[in-house]
Amino acid sequence: MKFKCEAPIHLTMPVRVNYLKRPRFKKPVLVAGLPGIAHIGKLAVEYLIHQLRAKKFVELYSEHFPEWVVRDDGSVKTLKVDLSYCKPDGLKRDLLLATADAQAASPAGQYRLTGEILDLAAQHDADTVITMAAYVLSPNELKAKVVGAASDVEMVKILREHGVKLLDSGMIVGMNGLLPGLAAARGMRGFCLLGATRGGLLDVAAAESVLRALSDVLGFKLDLEELHKHAATLPRFKPPRLRLPSGIEEEVSYIR
To answer: If you count DSSP H runs as helices and E runs as strands, how many of each does the chain have, helices first?
Structure first.
């Protein structure tokens, strides 16, 4: 039996960028949604890709991902970051949509992979970086449906003007926080939209809330009627449990 092998992926290199096409953009906006609690950000970006018919143009492979592969109908695929692009109705700029199979497995890896994503965004003249993620409510806590944080005073003002309640304490852990945070150090603006959730495997209502906030802040039209139907078609990816040296098993989590 003969097997046809596509372009090899040299995982001995820290990062490999695979361009599927090389479109031209003018000051696009990078919007990222990575796996995390209730998969809010990932579902939100996956829906944008589906609803806006975005086209994938680059894949980013890295040795900083966790040491597993994704199972897909009996085959296995290495972890990667996918970047797609589109131009929504009502928005004069392109959107670069970034999602991934996982976040990096270590703090150093998260910084490195975040930097690689920002390098790609900068190469295409992006000047704004946005992430979508989860804000986990405590048992008795009441919170706005969406809260946010931004990299500069002007962006804070914009979020406030669009009804996004601002975080006044706490941390945004993982790449969903690092992307807008490190973007500021590169001269880009950034902010994060967090959907309030009680947790769980998939919170569609919270994803809908952050998508409404995103389209409102950026000023483009987005039909959300198919979100729940689309969410039902997505695989329920749950990271494996890691066995710690003590023998205790712990689920991988990205945001605390």
So the answer is: 6, 13
The owner of tokens 């990667």 is 80
Inside any domain, residue 175: yes
Question: Would residue 201 count as lying in a domain?
Answer: yes
> How many domains does the structure of the chain reveal?
1
The whole domain housing 70 covers 15-224+235-251
DSSP 38: G
Q: What are phi and psi of 6, to 5 degrees?
A: -75, -175
3-state secondary structure 92-148: CCCEEEEEECCCCCCHHHHHHHHHHHHHHHHHCCCCEEEEEEEEECCCCCCCCCEEE
Residue 113 falls inside a structural domain: yes
Cα separation, 157 vs 132, in Å, equals 18
Q: Please report the beta strands in the chain, taking only residues with DSSP state E, as ranges in sequence order.
A: 15-19, 29-32, 55-62, 70-72, 75-77, 81-86, 95-100, 128-136, 146-150, 165-166, 189-197, 241-243, 249-251
Q: What is the pLDDT of residue 2?
A: 44
3-state secondary structure of 60: strand
Q: How many Cα neighbours within 13 Å face the side chain of 11?
A: 10
Mean pLDDT by 10 residues, the chain (256 residues): 46 73 94 93 96 96 88 82 95 95 92 95 96 87 86 94 89 90 93 92 94 96 92 65 46 38
Domain-located, residue 25? yes
d(CA 250, CA 141): 26
Q: What is the CATH number of the domain that holds 36?
A: 3.40.50.10900
Instruction: Supply the DSSP symbol for 228.
Output: H
Q: Which residues lie across from 72 on neighbouring strands? A: 75
